[in-house]
Predict the 3D structure of the following.
Amino acid sequence: MGLSAQGINEFLSSLPCKNGKYSYFRSLRVLCNWMVRNGIMTSNPISSVDPPKIQKRIPPSLSETEVAKLLEEASCITHKAIISLLADSGMRLSEVAYVKHSDIDWDNNTISIWGKGNKQRRAPFTASTGVLLKELISQNGTSPNIWHMTRRGIQSMLHDYTEKLGLPCNAHTFRRTFASNLHRKGVDVEHIMRLGGWETLDMVVRYTRSVKFEDSLKMYQEAMSVS
């Protein structure tokens, strides 16, 4: 089997995908490294190939007004409580799907959850979300989770609101919304990292990047309106 730097470059250039090119590059790099280690090739062609540039898109998040619109349009207390909790806490879908009554600390407005990497942490929620949760639990009674819904059911429910309202409504968007809205209120990124259960600041900085642009855009618009 023959591989060359020219062939790899031509293959990557032929791909129609954008950020996906980097995934192909990484796979080829693993393959080439393996072939060199096992003596199949004497030189590594991938060392002469520049990695494809990754487009850094600004990921979407919701404003407080948009979250309020979602809550207003929510058709039942279960939907309202899930949307409100996701926006308040930044919990992942895998975390929110398994919340039980016994996980909730009503004195501190936190929920004990098992997060990414099977690590336990506490997620915060506001008093208004607490009211929705108490109302929901008083109606629903006990079950494997307080929602009486599966993870797939929650995902499908959120997708329905995306279709209905044209707003990005999924757990990842709410996670970015959680980080961005806290950042707008002046909360330090290190606090946001701990509250949201991130291991490093990298994702928090990425999620809050749009806030910095919005602040700069607002300053620009104010300056231009004066001139």
About this structure: Residues 64-173 form a domain with the hpI Integrase; Chain A fold (CATH 1.10.443.10). The chain has eleven helices and three strands.
